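Thread: quick sanity check before group meeting

JM: Hey all, I'm pulling together slides for Thursday and realized we never actually wrote out the predicted structure for the chain we discussed last week. Dropping the sequence here so it's in one place. If anyone has concerns about the input, flag it before I start.
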Amino acid sequence: MAAIPTQRESEPRAREVRGRATLPGSPLAPGAARALVRAALTEASGVSEIPARLVDDAMAVVSELVTNAVVHAGTDVEVDWLLEETGAFVLEVGDRHPSRAPRDPLGAEGPYDTPEYGRGLRLVTTLAESWGVTYRAGAKTVWARLPPGGVEDPDAPAPDAALEVAEDLAPQPHRAGGDRDWLGRGALSFLAEASDLLAGQLDENLVTALTGQLIVPRLADWCAVWLEDEATVRGGAGSGPDRVWHASENRIEELRCALEKEPPCPGEGLRSGPEPYPWPGHALGPQGADGTALAYRLIAGGRPLGTLVIGRCGLERFPDEVTGLVEDLSRRVALAIGAARQYARQATISAVLQRGLLPGAVAEIPGVSSALVYEPCDKGGPSGDFYDLFPAGDGRWCFAVGDVQGKGPEAAVVIGLARPWLRLLAREGYRVADVLDRLNQLLLDDATEAADAAARALVAAGGRPVATGDGPQTRFLSLLYGELTPYDGGVRCTLASAGHPLPLVLSPDGTVRTAAGPQTLLGVVEDETYTSETIDLRPGDSLLCVTDGVTERRSGSRQFDDGDGLASALSGCAGLSAELIAERIRRLVHDFGGGLPEDDLALLVLQAE
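JM (edit): ok, ran it. Output follows.
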């Protein structure tokens, strides 16, 4: 654990409960930190009772310090916690950006002069017995110490983690003294719940929708969000808000029209706000003729993402407590929008890459009907499974079902090598075994070149370790590859399996047999010599080719293919068409595990007509 400042060294620490975690500097970090600390405190409470107030205060402090580190440092975050025998709780949150220091929030001068680092530390000051900042070379740590039992607050209602309770505690225009209640734990629970709610969203439209539900009517009578896209600033002159909320539904359209005429005009720099915004009283009716509105710039990762505007009727200015709370919330909204956009960009890239790695359509073969099932388990990244069915010339058609070790970019690299080479070699007239020989050597040569490049990079770096992901990666490929030649009365099939689940042939009478023998994975053994086998598919015979997402589908300790489970399932498909066979096997695999598959799934059925 990082060194603790001198003023805490003399305090008793016998039988201490402590923990440490390093979290990526992402919007998910605050929620992950809260979960870890809560689990540690829950476990410790099994030995000696820990007051619920201390647990709630600890969750609020964890949330604020980790959020500050994520927003203002952007590096990995180190979280250390310590529960002393005295019952006091000590938290340290470190980052690798020592130049970005939080300010003492007690020095804030008003709602329009909020420090760049937000008001999150004001909440920490309220709850902590003491707190401070420790600087080290290349890093800083913000620490806070909570007294046993938490800080007493006789005016604060009992804490509750639910948003419904936070809503009851939220300031309302009609409730006297409601704003002051946010200095209690209602606001802290609200922020913690809002963080978890927003961090779990991967769609920016849903993030903005949740923002309105969190703010109206808890903190404001109305609010609006303008979003700025990657290429243009949509918040410029004449552009309307992306979303508008009002406590009264029948005022939304009038308010939207008014706000379209007064889009926010952000000033220079990246100040998050709040800034005054013109009051659209003419759109709010007699009850809303007077009021105040504020604009908050939504900034994440040093980039402006949009603007949040809030308004409340009948006020000359927002109370400081509300402006600080909304600024804390706006930081979380900006982080969630940034994460959603990053996910959307990655999903788009992955989808385009996936389309490029698979054939646009499978070939139609005279005298053969085919059916394909392809289900990647990770919709957001390239799959490790692939397939192909293509004409090779001279009355031949070739098919392939493969599975690369791993997923993501490394899998895409191997598929990007294998599939074009399969087509090229087949069309050049190479037979099945020769194709596997050459593809095996290609993968080995590529791995050797990658290792040489990594070695040169290590030398260039002066012997310093190469960053994770930059070194050579093992590229193994299991592949079932075959060639089909239709003739009068059937289809001749020559095929070979390299480290792949063996293909099965279903006869019309329901008997099932294997169609090839096992051989070594591609990309493993230098100068490996592969062999092929030839079978004749008579009318009604069906060839089933699958990846290990089928054979290794799990249900507890059992796998789908235990006891020749796949062959038994296939034997029950006698008399079915290729499409019905594929669909029945797919359904049986899904039903076997009870939940969603944990691996990519691909299967190809070829049936002689």
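AS: nice. The first strand starts at residue 17 and ends at 23. The chain has 13 helices and 22 strands.
JM: adding both to the slides.
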